[in-house]
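note to self: the first set is below, dont mix up w the second
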Amino acid sequence: MNVNVLEAVRTEAPEAVVVAVSSNEVYGPPDSLPVDETAPLRPQNPYAVSKASGDLLAGFYADAHGLRVVRPRAFNHAGPGQRPIYAIASFTRQVAAGLEAGDEPILLVTGNPDARRDFTDVRDVVRAYRLLAEAREPGVFNVCSGRSSSPRDLVAALSAATGVAIDHVVDPALVRAHDVMEVRGSADRLRAATGWEPRIPLEQTLADTVAWWREEIRAGRATGPVHE
């Protein structure tokens, strides 16, 4: 969150609601599961540090100036349009490329097959942001499904969604040396404030994202190596 935006709201529109999007990365490795909003902030990489600083800055403006600042901390989200540096985007792109090439089985390369993450469809995440803005209740809110899935689970779900066999290969170069084995959040506070629940099942997220990647490949917009 940019200090100039907060200053502009403070001076020009103090009744406005500010949605300062944060990330579950601010929590760092969880001490217990599910992670709720009372967990300490222990960011473990530069991106997480930047999100934590923006999160704290937004909280300061809420406390010091009485602004209505909502701080949603989104866990992993996925869906059509996401870059393949993210797990589900990479996996679905690989499957889409295999389908377009007529491969069977389709080769799908992953890192750690058993590290579990909490995935929510990006369309549900955006709906949570809108509901929080409309509710006008300031504070911190996790945006998450409360369920975790591993790459092994995602490969099986992709095979079921597409009806083709997948040859799952683990690339040691993609396995992190000190990977956190499970991250899973609690969205109880968000649910209590807005009534939000995720509507789009993971299977639909996967199918929709594969379909989107197939269109991108046909249009020549999916460039670069398939296995990233």
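second set (the one i keep forgetting abt)
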Amino acid sequence: MANAGLRLPKNAPGDFFVDSTCIDCDACRQIAPDTFAEEGDYSIVHHQPQNGDEIRRAMMALVACPTASIGTVEHHDAHIGIDAFPELIAENVYYCGFNAESSFGAWSYLVVRSDAEGGNVLVDSPRFATQLVKKIDAMGGVKRMFLTHKDDVADHRRFAERYACERIMHADDGAPRLGIERVISSGDPLRLDDDLIAIPVPGHTRGHTVLLYRNKFLFSGDHLAWSPNRKTLTAFRSACWYSWAEQIKSMERLLDYEFEWVLPGHGRIHHDSAENMRMHLERCIEWMKGRD
């Protein structure tokens, strides 16, 4: 739990607060933007929640926070936040919540599919929290676990043990060392089934791979996200651990595909038409080339 003695001074007076253990992962600002805002290297409460929906969103942020840096002075039923996860994003795609500190607060997702479609897919790893696991059990468990890259693997072993699921990851990010069942070894796209394509996109890391579902949902890890400041798609130059030049080439390869959603591990989710997403991707590539 957050420590009131470490409460950041820029928090708005009142019930909810963020303490100095915050790692600025941005999760709370995405989940409850009416309550949380950025202040230097931290998130803070810039507006105390005033109604039931604002309290619910703030409690969801509290539950998702990977470092337990969000606290309250008053008592709130934790299930207000816990029971909201997994949270439906669109169609059969859910945000898991329960972000893991070992993945620096990266987001993970659950795609719910029938057995005939190939079963549920967990994209990257949340915390192995009992409350979340029970909900996933009730939603059909996990048949496959797709790990975009080595930064966001968190509790993948515990999920694999629980569900005996097939984990999928690229060799160049250490998949064999992690005991991954299905190792991607080439730079070519790999069709996992009728509606899932794994696309290697080296750059952020050597073995970074994105997952395209139904030619509509792009699970982009740390490769691609929406920038609310620039109002377009973006990459993270300061967090490119392998090669910016390779990441530009990888971004250009994505022009061969259509998608309407970008669902990143870090950065903002965005939805638009396939045509507009292509325009934003082209704009992102030009911006990246200017920073090569």
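remember for set 2: DSSP finds seven helices and 19 strands in the chain.
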